[in-house]
Design brief:
About 65% of the residues lie in helices and about 0% in strands. By secondary structure, it is mainly alpha-helical.
């Protein structure tokens, strides 16, 4: 009985993932955002650590 429930859950999960994948836009068709943004998180972290120590 437990194995039947496990197979049902796995089947529903696979069905949901496949359905979601089919509804996604094609990769690269509409890229959101830009790639020339400078990530300053590491710089801010270093400055915070320097200020504390």
């Amino acid at each position: 009985m437990d194995i039947v429930i496990a197979f049902i859950i796995i089947g529903l999960l696979a069905y949901g993932l496949e359905r979601n994948r089919r509804h996604q836009a094609q990769p690269g068709s509409r890229m959101a955002g830009t790639s020339d943004v400078v990530d300053r998180d590491i710089e801010r972290l270093r400055n915070d650590l320097r200020a504390r120590f």
